[in-house]
Amino acid sequence: MPAHMSPQKNAKAKAPRGGSRRPWVVPIAIVGVTAAVYLGGVAVFSNVFMPQTRLNGQDVSLMPGADAAALAEGPLSSYSFRVTGNGLDLTVTADKAGLSRDGQAMAAKALAAQGAWTWPLGLAGSRDLEVECPVTADESKLEGLIADAAQAAAEADPGEKDIAFDAASGTYVLSDAALAAHIDAKAAAAHVTEALADMPQAVTLGDESLSGGSELHDALTRLNAYVGATQALTLGGNQAATVDAARIAGWLSQGDDGSVTLDTQAIADWCHGELSDQLDSVGTERTYTRPDGKVVTVSGGIYGWCIDGGALAEQIAAALEAGAAGSIEIPCTSSAVIVNPHGQDWGARYIDVDRTEQHARFYGDDGSIIWESDVVTGQPNKGHDTPAGVWSITSREHGDINLRGPVGDDGEPEWDSHVQYWMGVVGSAVGFHNAPWRSQFGGNIYTWYGSHGCINLSMEKADELYNVIQVGDVCIVHD
Asked: Residue 213's pLDDT is what?
C-alpha cells in the first residue's frame, strides 16, 4: 500500500473541528459590554442628576441639567424686593432692575460636582449639592430707579428741617428728605446688587450710599456733640437734677449756613427759673412733723437751699461747649443739711419756737429735748410779731448787753434795755434774750404785753440755752 495511503495519516487529517476554538473571545466581549454600559452612564450622568440628589435644597433626582437650570431661573419672574433707608422706600421688580440668573452655569457646575465618572458608586448613596447661582442686576437700570426715587423723596416735604432732634434716641438725625438728597445712586445700586445674591425681601441703605453734604454732616456732628454732653447735677452730694439731651436740644439753634449756637441766656433762665423753683427752699413753705407729733407748716426765714443760678449756668455752658458728659455740684449762696423740697431740710438738732403755744423746745441730734421753756414772743396787734420762718442762730453773747429800739422824733430810742444774754435769730434785730422786767412767761401774755419781736426768757432759762446753743443752729418760728 502506498505510503500516503497509510491509515494513521488519514486519521490525523480528519480530526474534529471543535478542537480549533479560541478561549479568550468571551472575556473580551464581556469587557466590551461593561465598558459600553459604564461610558453610557458617564454620558448620562454628565447631563442628568443621579438619583437621591438635592441641589441647593431642591430635589433634582434624575433631572436633566437644562431642567435644573430652568428651575433656578424661574423664580426671578415673580421676584421683587424693597429698597429702604436714607429716606427711600422703593419696591423694585426683577424686570425693572434687569435681574438675571445663570442657571445653566450653575447646573453645569453641579453636574461636574456630582462626579459622572464615579456614577456606579454614586448610585448607592445620596448627595446634597450646594452651588451658587447669584442674581445679577443691570446696575444702570437700578441706578436710574434709585436716582428717580431719591429725587422724589428729597422734594416730598420742602418745609421739613434737614436736621431734627429725635427724642427716642436722644440724638439729632438727618431728615428723610435730607438723606435722600445726598444719596449716591451709583454707590447705592452697587450695594443693592451685592445684596441680591441671597434674594432678600428688602435691602437697607446705610452710610455707604451717602455722599456730599459736608456742611450738613458737620452741623449734625456738632449738634450731637452738644446733646451727648449730658450733666448730672448734684446738691449736697446727692443727684438733684439732670441736664439731659432733650433739654440741651432746647438750648441749641441752627443757622442757614450750618452754624450751631448754644443759647447761654436760655441756660441762665432755666437755672434761675425752673431749677431754682425746684430746689430753692429759703423762704418757701415747708411742712415737717415735730418729735411730739405736731405737724407744722412754716414759710419765711433765710435758712435753706438757694442755688447760684448764674454760676451754675456758666458751668453748664462750659461743659456743653467741651462736649463731655459729667456731673456738676450745684453752687449755692445758701445751703441746708439735706435736700428735701417742701419738707424738713435741716437735721434733727433745731430749736422750735411755737408762737401759739408760747413755748420753745430745743431738740438734740437724737431728737430728744435738750432744753425747753415758756417764752413771750412779739405782740402781734402792735405789728411786732416775732417773724415766722426757718432761721439760724447768728450770734451768741453774754454780759451787759444794751438793746435799743429805733430812734423816735425826739431823737431818743423807743426803748433802751439791758440784758445779760443774747442769741440772735434774725440778724441782730430779733433774738432770744433774758427779760429782767418780766416775772411770768407763756400763756397769752404776748397778746397784750408782748415783746417788740424778740423771744423773751427768764434769766435761768436764758442761761441754760446759752450753754447749749451754737451759732448756726436752726431755729424755726411758727404758729
From this structure: 65
Q: What is the pLDDT of residues 252-276, one digit of tens each?
A: 999 878 889 999 999 999 999 999 9
User: Residue 74's pLDDT is what?
Assistant: 64
Q: How far apart are alpha carbons 162 and 254 in whole angstroms?
A: 10
Q: Is the pLDDT confidence value at 136 over 90? A: no
Q: Which of 167, 181, 182 is nearest to 245 (CA)?
A: 167
**Residue 235, SS3 per DSSP:** strand
Contact 118, 86 (CB under 8 A): no
For residue 325, the tally of other CB atoms under 10 A from its CB is 14
Distance, CA of 29 to CA of 286 (rounded, Å): 118
The per-residue pLDDT for range 104-114, each reduced to its tens digit, is: 777 788 788 78
Angle 242-245-250 from CA coordinates, rounded to 5°: 100
- SS (HEC) of 353-388: EECCCCEEEEECCCCCEEEEEECECECHHHCCCCCC
Backbone angles phi, psi at 353, to 5 degrees: -110, 110
Place of cell 429716606: 87
Q: Please give the pLDDT value at position 308.
A: 98
Report the 10 Å Cβ neighbour count for 69. 21
Buried b (16+ CB within 10 A) or exposed e, 392-412: bbbebeeeeeebeeeeeeeee
- Residues 389, 302: contact at Cβ < 8 Å? yes
Dist. CA 125–CA 454, nearest whole Å:
110
Crossing angle of the two packed helices 139-154 and 185-195, in degrees rounded to 10: 120
- What is the spatial distance between Cα 113 and Cα 131, in angstroms, rounded to a whole number? 9
457 versus 410: the higher-pLDDT residue is 457
| Res 11 pLDDT > 80 | no
- Cell 445620596, residue? 126
Sign of the dihedral through C-alpha 441, 446, 448, 450: positive
Look at residues 69, 66, 63 and name the one whose alpha carbon lies nearest to residue 48.
63
Contact 331, 309 (CB under 8 A): no
Predicted TM-score (pTM) of the model is 0.66
Q: Treating both helix axes as pointing N-terminal to C-terminal, what angle do 103-114 and 65-73 enclose, rounded to 10 degrees?
A: 140
What pLDDT digit, counting tens, does each position of 417-442 carry? 899 999 999 998 999 999 999 999 99
Find cell 432746647 and name the residue: 250
**Can you say whether the dihedral through the CA atoms of 119, 120, 121, 122 is positive or negative?**
positive
